[in-house]
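Exercise 7. Given the encoded structure of a 602-residue chain, write a plausible sequence.
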């Protein structure tokens, strides 16, 4: 039977253990990613766009202005839905180091140091759960399990500077808050961390609701623990309002579905007020408490449905143009359900959380008193995180990191059982089973490598990819010599063109710019003459294309006779004049010649 053993928060011995693991993991990541670091190859276009946003901030753009003026410039630019909070560590590193090493080197250091620092924080927070509740060995194993999770490492590796890593940290802070000996202090930590998460990305709303649901269960189990939900909601609202004012100011009261708006804050405040009032009258019958929960949740839902019903249906993508939804959003696989992923990807996201969920349930059954209740709560939160990741696969990193502590305990149990095995064959088989549990995609990857090229595990072979042989950044010097103008380019390379030049682009893969994205897709599908008319009317100056890019191949598949399909096949219309200096980079670049007016009749 496991008993409660909440130890001191951050002792030096614990920090030393995790620190060693972090140094080892970071060193391996640096070696593995050295080529990408040295060539400034980013994991995702969003990371490039984040750096562009930070550069704009350091270049004098207002803290409250998140408009990308060089995207759809004729339309007034595109306002990003991202939070400035994530820009802070990147901007600080660049500001501090630029006087000593120059801007370029300072940026490179920030691109490496900030994600690895985030990884270190995540490892400490995950291992702290095992340290306080289980033991030294489990804490060390938790650090290693975090490092073995492919979804987690992808979001926390070098060059990955988008907001997903900080979402992981916020989730871990919230769960750590649930372990606090002081109910009120723990509730404040939970509420503040969830408010910070939602300020960074509203994608955290489902798991925030699940965690508050767990706090509501604590109230129902023990009326003295109502402070968890009440103080948690109060902290959630107070920190949420403070962060809104800090990052958005007091003039932006537009209701957005893809970011925290005054409407959301009003919903949260309503819930906090109702719960505070009902808590004042305790002890009251349980049915009255449930009525209070219904009033808090129902009132918030009613406010949403009456004020912004579109946010209750498609969320942040409610305003997306149907053409963009079909030909762009449906192909952003990281935002799709887990069954849309390849088999190897699905295994990486699903297997370890499922094993950890079973382990958390076992921990609850073997524990007693407070510890039993905690592991029961933890199992519900982990199950919720897994459920969210099933419908939005990029959320799998949060489920993966929450899986680490119970999975480390299960690993220790397995290793103890294996040590007791006397016969070598069962021991080897057991070790292989453990390896498959920790690296669930490994057998599928071996099988895929042995299958014919056209064979597909879960459709992986047909999935659109972003990788290409283009070296866009090597074309920066040539682009800098050309007169500034708008570039028609695929969504996946448009941010990089912004990064290496002062030109503007028609659109990037960010949904608030869906009107320009629609123009880009319509142009890709149109015939050459129609494409010429569209681009000339906009004043677009250049066309850029990586023929090997998955996006370009996807356009060709959807519109075989379209403008982009012709360019991929090497059929260049006469109104495009090649810029030959960039051919060696794999990037194709053309100037757009003006429409020739018909000669007057004589």
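Solution.
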């Amino acid at each position: 039977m496991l008993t409660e053993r909440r130890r001191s928060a951050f002792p030096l011995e614990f920090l030393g253990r995790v620190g060693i693991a972090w140094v080892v993991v970071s060193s391996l990541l640096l070696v593995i990613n050295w080529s990408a670091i040295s060539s400034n190859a980013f994991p995702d276009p969003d990371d490039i766009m984040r750096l562009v946003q930070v550069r704009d901030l350091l270049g004098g753009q207002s803290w409250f202005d998140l408009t990308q003026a060089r995207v759809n410039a004729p339309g007034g630019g595109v306002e990003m839905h991202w939070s400035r909070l994530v820009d802070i560590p990147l901007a600080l590193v660049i500001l501090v180091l630029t006087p000593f090493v120059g801007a370029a080197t300072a940026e490179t250091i920030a691109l490496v140091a900030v994600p690895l620092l985030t990884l270190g924080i995540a490892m400490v927070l995950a291992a702290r759960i095992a340290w306080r509740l289980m033991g030294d060995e489990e804490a060390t194993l938790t650090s290693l399990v975090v490092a073995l999770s492919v979804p987690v490492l992808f979001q926390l590796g070098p060059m990955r500077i988008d907001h997903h890593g900080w979402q992981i940290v916020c989730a871990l802070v919230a769960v750590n808050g649930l372990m606090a000996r002081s109910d009120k202090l723990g509730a404040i930590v939970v509420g503040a961390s969830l408010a910070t998460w939602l300020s960074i990305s509203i994608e955290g709303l489902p798991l925030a609701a699940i965690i508050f649901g767990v706090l509501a269960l604590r109230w129902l189990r023990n009326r003295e623990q109502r402070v968890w939900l009440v103080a948690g909601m109060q902290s959630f609202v107070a920190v949420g309002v403070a962060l809104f004012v800090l990052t958005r100011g007091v003039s932006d009261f537009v209701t957005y579905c893809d970011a925290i708006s005054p409407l959301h804050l009003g919903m949260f405040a309503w819930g906090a007020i109702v719960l505070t009032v009902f808590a004042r009258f305790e002890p009251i019958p349980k049915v009255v408490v449930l009525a209070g929960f219904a009033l808090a949740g129902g009132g918030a839902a009613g406010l949403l449905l009456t004020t912004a019903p579109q946010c209750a249906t498609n969320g942040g993508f409610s305003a997306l143009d149907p053409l963009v939804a079909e030909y762009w959003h449906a192909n952003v696989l990281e935002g799709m359900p887990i069954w849309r992923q390849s088999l190897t990807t699905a295994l990486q996201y699903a297997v370890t959380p499922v094993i950890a969920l079973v382990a958390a349930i076992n921990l609850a059954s073997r524990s007693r008193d407070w510890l039993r209740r905690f592991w029961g709560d933890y199992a519900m939160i982990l199950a919720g995180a897994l459920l969210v990741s099933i419908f939005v696969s990029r959320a799998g990193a949060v489920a993966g990191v929450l899986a680490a502590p119970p999975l480390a305990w299960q690993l220790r149990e397995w290793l103890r059982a294996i040590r007791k095995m006397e016969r070598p064959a069962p021991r080897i088989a057991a070790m292989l089973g453990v390896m498959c549990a920790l690296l669930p995609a490994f057998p599928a990857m071996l099988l895929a490598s042995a299958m014919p090229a056209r064979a597909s595990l879960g459709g992986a072979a047909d999935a659109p990819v972003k990788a290409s042989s283009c070296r866009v950044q090597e074309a920066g010097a040539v682009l800098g010599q050309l007169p500034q103008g708008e570039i028609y380019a695929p969504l996946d390379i448009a941010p990089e063109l912004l990064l290496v030049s002062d030109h503007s682009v028609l659109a990037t893969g960010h949904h608030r710019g869906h009107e320009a994205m629609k123009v880009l897709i319509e142009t890709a599908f149109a015939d050459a003459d129609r494409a010429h008319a569209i681009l000339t009317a906009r004043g677009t100056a250049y066309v850029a294309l990586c023929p090997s890019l998955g996006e370009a191949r996807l356009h060709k598949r959807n519109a075989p006779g379209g403008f982009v399909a012709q360019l991929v096949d090497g059929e260049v219309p006469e109104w495009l004049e090649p810029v030959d200096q960039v051919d060696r980079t794999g990037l194709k670049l053309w100037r757009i010649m003006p429409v020739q007016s018909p000669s007057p009749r004589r």
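Remark. Confidence is low (pLDDT under 50) at residues 451-465. Students should compare their own answers with the one above.
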